[in-house]
Amino acid sequence: MPPSGVVHIVDDDRAVRESLGDLLESLHYKVALYGSALDFLKVELSDAPACLVLDVRLPGTSGLELQEYLTKINVGIPVILMTAFGDIPMSVRGMKLGAVDFLTKPIRDQDLLDAITAAIRKDIDRRDDNAHLAQLQERFALLTTRERQVMTLVASGLMNKQVASELSISEATVKMHRGSVMRKLGAKTAAMLVRMAEALQLQG
To answer: Per-residue pLDDT tens for 121-169?
Structure first.
C-alpha cells in the first residue's frame, strides 16, 4: 500500500494537470491542482504528509524558482519536477535543490506513482524527525545549567575525570549529573547521548 497523503500538482496545461489528478484520485490520493506557482502560494498547506508535482516551465514564476523559494522559506514539502524539455542543467539544478525526482513528459504512470510514493514517505520521515527533535528540545529545556554543561562536554568526547577538571567539580558530581541527564533525556547509552547532542547541535 502506498502511503496516503496530499499531492499538489502545479502545471499550466489544464489537460495535463487534470489527467494526472484523475489518475491519482482513482488511487485514493487527495489531490490539489494549480495552474501557476502563484496559485499554489495563495493556498495554506494542510498539516499532513504531502508532495509537490511541479512543472519546470510555468508562466511567471518558473517551477525551479518556486522550488528555490520554498527551500528559502523552509517549507520542506518534497518536490517532483516534470518537464517536456528535459535538459540536463535544469535537471541537475532541480536535484541539487533537493528534488526527489525529475520526470520527462509524457510521464509514465508508474514512474509518477513511484516518485510520489517516495516523496510522501520522505515527508512522513521528515515530520517524524521534526516531532522527535521537538520532543528532545522539550526534555533538554528541563536540564539545569550544570547538567547541560556536563552533557555538552561528555558528548564532545571527554571522560568523567576530564569533565570534572574542566568544570572544577568532583568526578562523583559529574557522574551524578551525567546520570540525571540520561534519565531526563531517556538516553540509555553514551552513544545515544552523543546522537542527542548532535541533534541539538550542542558545541563542546
So the answer is: 999 999 999 999 999 999 999 999 999 999 999 999 999 999 999 999 9
The CATH class given to the 142-199 domain equals mainly alpha
Residues 53 and 101: their CA atoms lie apart, in Å, by: 10
Give dist(CA 19, CA 32) in Å, integer. Answer: 12
Q: Is omega for the bond preceding 2 within 30 degrees of 0, making it cis? A: no
Distance between CA 79 and CA 159 in Å, rounded?
45
Q: What share of the chain is helix, strand, coil (3-state, %, to 5)?
A: 55, 10, 30
Q: Where in the chain is the domain with CATH 3.40.50.2300?
A: 6-128
Residues counted in the chain? 204
pTM (two decimals): 0.80
CATH class of the domain at 6-128: alpha beta
In the chain, which segments carry CATH 1.10.10.10?
Answer: 142-199
